[in-house]
Amino acid sequence: MKRFIEPDELARDSRFIRQSNALTTVLATLPDDVDAVVDVFEKFTPMIRDSVRGTPSQALYDEFGPAFSLALLNEPIRAGARGLKTRLKMRVHAIFVGELQALEGAGRSLWDFPDTPWDFKMNMARQCWDETRHVQIYEKLMDHVGASAGDYPESTFLFECACSDDPAMRVAGVNRGLEGLACDVFRDLIRYAEEIGDETMKQAVDYVLADELTHVRFGSEWVKAFTRDDPEHFKRTQDFRRQVDKQFSFGGSRSDRPDAPIRIAWEDRLEAGFSEEELRELAEISGDGPSPETLIEAARVLRERHLGEREGPKTRAAAAAKAMA
Ligand SMILES: [Fe+2]
Ligand SMILES: [Fe+2]
Predict the structure, then answer these.
(1) pLDDT of 282 strictly over 80
(2) Which residues of 83-118 are buried (b: 16+ CB within 10 A; e: fewer)?
(3) d(Cα 237, Cα 176) in Å, to the nearest integer?
(4) 8, 144, 234, 296: which sits with the fewest CB atoms below 10 Å from its CB?
(5) What residues have CB less than 8 Å from 213, skipping those under 6 apart?
(6) pLDDT tens per residue across span 193-246
(7) What is the pLDDT of residues 61-119, one digit of tens each?
(8) Which residues have CB atoms below 5 A from the ion given as ligand 1?
């Protein structure tokens, strides 16, 4: 079996639609500027349109335009919020494919590094078992909220950004970057489940979060073990984790800003082995992308233009004037 596979070699059945991660990568580097966000989405419009054609997401594209994910994902999941039902489905589906990629990340860590200690391999095997259960749990939670596998495009962004061919960097990216993001997203979903009194969701996600804390701990411990007596190597793993954390902040959507759709799960992360200093740094790294207001305004402009395009030249001019007002 081949070692160090490319993200596009990840196997999926015919239900899944793959979307390039180029857009997510660009979003991570954007300034807090409506025009910059709009320009990027306009550039990616053909790719987005092709990736949703014939899927349940096409209705969202038709209604909101190329920035449908911005329109729907950049507000907190809270009872009574705008478009909540669709946003919840998209969130749970995104976590489901994230769990698949976490399973693949851990599986590759076990296979790609044959010379690592037995205990490391046992930890990665344990993680594979956990992630498999998480995939099943989220498959059931998709049922619970009315979504199905393949309803929305999948970007293999998490796998691509978190995997490295150095074992210390691999666990820094997958077990501290990706699993750390999982802690933030799951704590947010538990908060929502508590808010609406959904015991099923609350308990299911709480079980999964408990496992994710263990996976972060694997990362914290193995980064130290793999870089012992080599401060320069340790520094490179920290730099890699910072870069992954920046990309996984989705331009400030996951940050410690009071208006962030997903806040940093400070307590859970401390329990999982992140230091206070690392968390302060994470808050700083993730806090300087576009604000939720900027993203929502960009989504509004893009929607107006999209509806104008669809409705013909007259309304297009009116929509453009309205969007620019
Ligand atoms: Fe997981
Ligand atoms: Fe995990």
Answers:
(1) yes
(2) bbebbbbbbbbbbbbbbbbbbbbbbbbbebbeebee
(3) 10
(4) 8
(5) 183, 268, 271, 272
(6) 999 999 999 999 999 999 999 999 999 999 999 999 999 999 999 999 999 998
(7) 898 898 887 766 667 788 988 788 988 999 999 999 999 999 999 999 999 999 999 99
(8) 99, 102, 131, 134
Q: Between 199-226 and 231-247, two packed helices, what is the crossing angle to 10 degrees?
A: 150
Measured distance CA(49)–CA(302) in Å, rounded: 13
Q: How far is the CA of 127 from the centre of ligand 2 (A)?
A: 6
Ligand 2 centroid to residue 316 C-alpha, Å: 46
Measure the CA–CA gap between 291 and 224, rounded to whole angstroms. 35
**If you measure from the C-alpha of residue 5 to the centroid of ligand 2, how many angstroms do you get, rounded to a whole number?**
20
Cα–Cα nearest to 156, from 278, 25, 50, 265: 25
Return the CATH number of 7-295, one of 1.10.8.100, 1.20.1260.10, 3.40.640.10, 3.30.465.10.
1.20.1260.10
- The rounded distance, in Å, linking the Cα atoms of 217 and 180 is 10
pLDDT in tens, 43-53: 999 988 988 88
In this prediction, residues 113-128 reach a mean pLDDT of 97
Q: How many A from CA of 146 to the centre of ligand 2?
A: 24
Position of tokens 């596009």?
8
Q: Which two tokens stand for residue 203?
A: 């308990």
- Tell me how far the alpha carbon of residue 136 lies from the centroid of ligand 2, in angstroms: 13
Contact (Cβ atoms closer than 8 angstroms) between residue 248 and residue 262: no
**296 Cα–ligand 2 center, Å:** 30
Q: What CA–CA distance (Å, rounded) separates 171 from 217?
A: 10
Task: Give the pLDDT score at 257.
Answer: 87
